[in-house]
Write a structure and sequence with these properties.
This protein is α/β, with parallel strands linked by helices. It has 13 helices and twelve strands. The strands form three sheets. The protein has an eight-stranded mixed β-sheet, sandwiched between helices. A two-stranded antiparallel ribbon has the order 1-2. Helix 6 links the parallel strand 6 and strand 7. It is globular.
Length: 377
């Protein structure tokens, strides 16, 4: 969630065999500078059908978002950061299995984007095998350019898809989910930041799957009228999640387009509008923060009445992304978890592979039980 992307001039990719080849075929790329022109057009079916090409409006040129320089043009000029070898406690199995393939089929059938794929989540194989996928609404291109994030960046070429909430609801029903997590890209090009689209998606899921609990992971709505938050809250998600991502001292380098205290206040306002909604937020460690800074973020979250804290290890997507400062050990994560519970969080998930939606359904059950126990006490 960072600064708006800026582009420069440069040559774009050209078809190998001249004009007339269709999107989805192979292209040679020979840019003078790995930058992105203003007029990229992204056909929605291109990525949804398993292809990575995006065409330029009015021509045959393409960009392949599987190539880091074209996926993140604003990072292309940056020097490479070494990617250290992952310790043994970070290793995961390659995604496979019948459940994984069936989940993938349903996502493709409904032309849905998942943050699991776009952000390169290490837990995708495990979660998808269980039929759990975190759907990412409002497109696959983010208007911010956070230095840690692997989601494609740029100016989204299309308006929000009014049929997407229905497709999400149908996919949730087919997967038979008891708990679903819905997230999105940042859409600073939309007046309300996508608040109404979130609300429509929540209501569509409620209509098709009334027994499913709904968790949303929202952008910060930084450039919107403050009233748009109530549109989302009035749709009554069970969990409202907005990640602080890192400690405030690292925002200029990690999340320069966002504001730490704005994000914190967003979470506090949700609680003020509807105290029954669980609030949740997460940070990454291994970016260069200190233990004292992490504990201060915990205190800030509790002051905003946040119920659920997640802490996970930052993993560097490409050499152009923010460097990994260090790999935090499992013992340190256990210490963070103990400290967070001591500060009054209802639920804490702190492990190297913790991500916002990892084991979200099981965690929601524990979160609800913890609230009941505290109210009973």
């Amino acid at each position: 969630m960072c600064a708006r992307t800026r582009y420069g001039a440069g040559r774009v990719a050209q078809p190998v065999n001249g004009p007339g080849r269709e999107v989805g075929t192979r292209y040679a790329v020979a840019p003078q500078h790995p930058v992105r022109p203003q007029n990229w057009y992204i056909p929605p079916r291109c990525i949804m059908q398993g292809r990575s090409y995006q065409t330029v409006r009015g021509g045959n040129s393409v960009r392949d978002i599987k190539i880091p320089q074209q996926r993140h043009p604003e990072k292309a000029h940056r020097p490479d950061n070494a990617q250290p070898k992952k310790p043994h406690w970070i290793r995961v199995k390659a995604p496979d299995g019948d459940g994984y393939r069936e989940t993938k089929r349903i996502m493709r059938e409904h032309k849905l984007v998942t943050v699991c794929e776009e952000a390169g989540c290490p837990n995708a194989g495990e979660c998808w095998n269980q039929g759990h996928a975190t759907m990412m609404i409002m497109g696959d291109t983010c208007t911010r350019a956070c230095s840690f994030c692997n989601i494609a960046t740029g100016k989204p070429p299309e308006a929000l898809d009014p049929f997407e909430p229905g497709r999400v609801a149908d996919a949730v029903q087919k997967l038979g989910l008891n708990h679903v997590v819905i997230t999105s890209v940042d859409r600073d090009d939309v007046d309300d930041g996508g608040a109404a689209h979130f609300a429509q998606t929540i209501r569509a899921i409620r209509h098709r799957s009334p027994g499913t609990t709904i968790e949303i992971l929202t952008p910060d709505f930084l450039h919107c009228d403050p009233a748009v938050l109530k549109v989302v809250v009035d749709a009554r998600p069970d969990v409202f999640n907005h990640n602080l991502e890192t400690v405030p001292g690292l925002y200029p380098a990690v999340r320069p387009g966002a504001r730490y205290f704005h994000s914190l206040r967003l979470l506090q306002r949700v609680k003020e509008m509807d105290p029954t909604i669980f609030t949740k937020s997460g940070i990454m460690v291994g970016l260069g923060e200190t233990r004292e800074q992490v504990r201060q973020v915990m205190d800030d979250m509790r002051a905003a009445d946040v119920d659920f804290l997640t802490i996970g290890q930052y993993l560097q997507p490409t050499p152009k992304h923010h460097a990994v400062d260090r790999f935090v050990t499992p013992d340190e994560f256990a210490a963070y978890e103990k400290a967070a519970f001591g500060k009054g969080f209802l639920m804490v998930s702190a492990t190297p592979l913790t991500r916002s939606s990892y084991h979200a359904g099981d965690d929601f059950a524990r979160l609800s039980a913890a609230r009941q126990e505290r109210l009973g006490a």
